[in-house]
Amino acid sequence: MPSPSRWFELRVWLGLIGGLAAMPLALAADEPQQLARGKALFTQTQPACAVCHTLAAAGSEGQVGPVLDELKPDAERVRKVLRAGLGAMPSFADKLSAADIEALAVFVARSTGGAVQPPKAAP
């Protein structure tokens, strides 16, 4: 029979595993609102993403930036570019909240078939 400290260790591990397993369900529950927010931000943020980028889900046909439907960026790539900018694209770190950046990242990734993974923890 395992010692009391071993039982405690097992309970901690099981709790961690259970928490991680539930995380995608929590993300999925909020996703419809997040996608709607992301779409609104894509078309309404100034300057609007839709001015430069083509994205069928947003009804945009921009001619300057990459065609997102072809690029299929994952959510992490979208987060990074929104925060830091890339090439001619400016950073939106001072214009968008962390929640807005997340909504845009999830919307673009979901719309194009890119991977939607949770944001990485800050170092």
UniProtKB/TrEMBL annotation:
Cytochrome c domain sequence ranges: 33-112
Question: Is Secreted included in the keywords of this UniProt record?
Answer: no
Record-level Gene Ontology MF annotations: electron transfer activity; heme binding; iron ion binding
Q: Does the keyword Iron apply?
A: yes
Q: Name one Pfam family in it.
A: Cytochrome_CBB3
User: What PROSITE patterns does this protein map onto?
Assistant: CYTC (PS51007)
Which UniProt keyword terms apply here? Answer: Electron transport, Heme, Iron, Metal-binding, Transport
- Name of the protein: Sulfide dehydrogenase
Q: Species name for this entry?
A: Kinneretia aquatilis
Taxonomic classification, please?
Answer: Bacteria, Pseudomonadati, Pseudomonadota, Betaproteobacteria, Burkholderiales
